[in-house]
Write a structure and sequence with these properties.
single chain, alpha/beta, Alkaline Phosphatase, subunit A, Arylsulfatase, C-terminal domain, 9-stranded mixed beta sheet, 4-stranded antiparallel beta sheet, 14 helices, 15 strands, globular, disordered N terminus
Amino acid sequence: MILQRRAQRTGIFACLGCLYLLAISGCSKSEESAALEKRPYNVLLVTLDTFRADRMSCYGYSRNTTPNFDRLANESVRFDFAISQAGVTPVSHASILTGLNPYQHGLRVLYAPSGCTLPDTIPTLATVLGEFGLQTAAFLSSFTVSEFYGLDRGFQLFDAGLERSANSQLSETKSGFWGWNIQSAQRRSDVTTTRAIAWLRSVKSPFFAWVHYWDPHDQMVVPPQYVLGQFQPDQPTREGRLEALYDAEVSYVDQQFGLLIDTLKSTGRYENTVIVVVADHGEGLSQGLQDHGWWRHRLLYQEQLHVPLIVHLPGQKAGRVCDELVRTIDVFPTVLEALGIEAPQSVEGLSLAGLMSGKAELRRLAYADQLNLYDLTAKMIEQRPKDDLMYCMMDRTWKLIYRQLRPGESELYNLGDDPRETTNLFQSQPLKAKPFLEELRKRQCFVDKPFGTTDGDSEALDRLKSLGYVGD
């Protein structure tokens, strides 16, 4: 049986909920409702799973993979240095939907006895926008953003696209880790798009629609042959073929996104719709030394954390490009500000509206973490044991990856001189690392036991010990 995973309502989460209620009551619900009536905007949030920014033609890729995303970028603001808060899907999506870093919202891993469900005291875009009268619906493509993770709250229609219930997807493998049936836990982007378009044509404005695309995540559900034929491998190797498939999957998602935009335009809603396109994380796409010798995600290098972000606001000057560091937690307050709704004071994300209009602002810091040690699905630590507990803090130039159990093997990079993170300066420039370390400590983000109540879940602890990942 699947382990009980619903997170306990701790004092900190209750406090966050109270802060939110105080925030919206302090500025008067009637005042904000009136502001919303003056701006009857719709909201379309499109999240792209496992989507590297540098594989999109609007971000400089040599292949013409994303003409529809490019068109939106030309009519919007494109952020060239957006950073995700985690390299795993549900954790990152929780940050996008709440404006909170993982240590704040409490969804920390893909699967464990606890710590893998968003507490129901945390406000999300759906709960807030639904409270202010928007019709809400989600059309998703994978188990990893399903109700299993508590991401369904606030949605009047939640279409996760699963062939079986979310609770029946996970099962233990022979090696002692946990996994899920990928075939029954995902669907191709055309199926998701068809269902989303049917709802968009029937719904009355204003609305909030979340559409999630999964295709580039793996090789299980491939695009039609006419798309595959457009992307030939650069080299006759397995890696070359997989990279060509990745490009084809990116291109097919782009085609489906184009159909969503065509629907908004044909129904006369494009001009008054806030549109946000953002990825949850990137992908390694290399088994060699390039991109740190890792094909997938769950790491904190730029190929995993640097994501595309395009924001379209009604009346906003088109075609602007912002090169400042921003975070995926900034999506939540940006959408709320566009609709005239004040964000809760507890939200760590900051609205992008100022940067979008060209205003100079104080530079932001970005946080990310990856707690593979306490994730019962993280079989990858058999191959990369040092990537067990990692925390990242970075600004526009400097980036620290701190290894909690191996501090001496932490990594510091000057992204201005070394964007591919090839030269570790942690030992040679300790004064540069010190403020980032202090910032991590101040945030109290470190985890030192398996997720569970009180002293940790004993079953999870025994499992980790048997695998050699936790000492006595």
